[in-house]
Structure formats: C-alpha cells, structure tokens
Amino acid sequence: MAREKMVVARVDEKTVLLEKRRDSMCGHCPARNICNGESQVMRLTVQKGDFNLKVGDLVVVETPAVSGSKLAFIVYTIPLAIFIVTLVALVGALGEIVSFLTATSAMIVYYLILRVYDRYFRKTFKPHIIEVLKN
User: Fold this and answer.
1) Shared-domain flag, residues 18 and 48
2) Whole-angstrom Cα distance, residue 95 to residue 107?
3) Residue 34: what pLDDT?
4) How many CB atoms lie within 10 A of CB 103?
5) CA-to-CA distance for 135 and 127, rounded, in angstroms?
6) Distance CA 104, CA 116 (A)
7) Which long-range contacts (CB under 8 A, 24 or more apart) does 16-22 make?
8) Is the dihedral of CA 25, 67, 45, 8 positive or negative?
C-alpha cells in the first residue's frame, strides 16, 4: 500500500476532496517562465469516514500499490502485439485494407474488454484516509 500526505480542499457530507501539489523538475528551474515547466495539482475524492475534517487539514491517504510497468504492458504492449499479429497473419489472405481494419477492430475489442475490467478495478481501488496529521 502506498501512503501520501494530502491537504483537505473541500469537505462534503460523505466525501472529502483532497489535493496535493506535485512539482515537476521544471517547476524548480530558474528558466521555468520561458518553457512549459509547471507544477501540477493532483486531486482525489475519498470517503470522509469517522474523521472530523476541516479545509486545510493535512491527512495521510493510503492507496493500493499498482505496478506502473504492469499497467504500461497491459495498456500499450498487448494492444500493439494484437494489432501486429492480426495484421501480419491476415495480410496475405485478405489484403492490406481488410487486414488493417480487422487488426484495428481486434484492438478495439481488446480496449472494450479492458474498459469493463477497469470499471471492476475502480470499485476495488478505494483510497482512504488513515490518519489526520494536522487540524
């Protein structure tokens, strides 16, 4: 499980909007006004739980650990392999255009399956507040 410190930005009846400023390396560079280096604000909505939170509180949020390389493999490598294998396997029999369209369709079907899996995963991926550091 990964833990991050975040600041309470808004408190609703059942949920809390948390924010964390993520500075890129460019955000600290003296030449940042010339190029596009900016800091980013990460926002996350979580269940309020039993905590008495106010705007500005510093909290610790625990999220399930997810492997970045595994995600990249699932989202980029597998669809590319499906496209290439389908295209190469069918180009001799069906021609270039039909093979291209079939390979693209196979990749779309994969992404649709991945979308259904993602909806299931989001239900199990529940970050939650474990501690209030500063009120």
Assistant:
1) yes
2) 18
3) 58
4) 20
5) 20
6) 19
7) 16/45, 16/46, 16/47, 16/48, 16/53, 16/129, 17/43, 17/44, 17/45, 18/43, 18/44, 18/45, 18/46, 18/59, 18/61, 18/129, 19/43, 19/44, 20/44
8) negative
Tens of pLDDT along 18-69?
877 765 555 556 655 555 545 566 777 777 777 778 788 888 888 777 777 8
42 alpha carbon, distance to own chain's centre: 11
Token code pair at residue 92: 């001799």
- The average confidence (pLDDT) of the chain is 80
Q: Which DSSP symbol is given to 81?
A: H
CATH assignment of the domain containing 37: 2.40.50.140
The count of C-alpha atoms lying within 13 angstroms of the C-alpha of 89, restricted to the half-sphere facing its C-beta, is 9
- Domain range spanning residue 114? 68-123
